[in-house]
Design brief:
Strand order of the largest sheet: 1-2-3-6-5-4-7-8
Shape: globular
Number of domains: 1
Strand content: over 45%
Radius of gyration: 18 Å
Largest sheet: 8 strands, antiparallel
Distance between the termini: 34 Å
Order of helices and strands: HEEEEEEEE
Number of helices: 1
Helix content: 10-25%
CATH class: Mainly Beta
CATH architecture: Sandwich
CATH topology: Immunoglobulin-like
Structural class: mainly beta
Oligomer: single chain
Number of strands: 8
CATH superfamily: Periplasmic metal-binding protein Tp34-type
Length: 129
């Protein structure tokens, strides 16, 4: 009976991890509100899909911006800093990008929004497992 209860608990924990919600955060970048969603929570080593929707001060979706995502990990003893850059593509009012984290640890993500000659950025930190 004790083994059955232990197995049941492990099964429920595994099921909970399998159905974990996406990583979501909302941040302000100048006059924009940026909603960011990663398809894995917590983000994992390897490919992670990112969606970012951008709204202006009036609440309208911004679909005419150039969006670039820079992400990386600061230098650590015995390891140089890592820095990657990818362009986000617009699809259905959302900017989509794939982030490929090369190792576990603390990473930063900077989303740069260029519109009408002005660039605004939003920064966030994630712990990759």
């Amino acid at each position: 009976m004790k083994r059955f209860a232990t197995a049941l608990i492990i099964l429920l924990l595994a099921a909970g991890l399998a159905y974990a919600k996406d990583y979501m955060v909302m941040k302000k970048a100048g006059n924009y509100m940026v909603h960011v969603k990663l398809d894995k929570n917590p983000p994992v080593t390897g490919e992670n899909k990112m969606e970012a929707s951008i709204q202006d001060a009036a609440g309208a979706y911004v679909t005419d911006a150039r969006v670039v995502v820079e992400y990386g990990m600061p230098a650590m003893p015995g390891m140089p800093a890592m820095h990657y850059k990818t362009k986000a593509e617009l699809k259905n009012k959302q900017y989509l990008a794939t982030l490929n984290f090369s190792m576990a640890g603390a990473w930063y993500i900077t989303i740069k929004i260029t519109r009408a000659g002005k660039t605004q950025s939003v920064k966030l930190n994630v712990d990759v497992s």
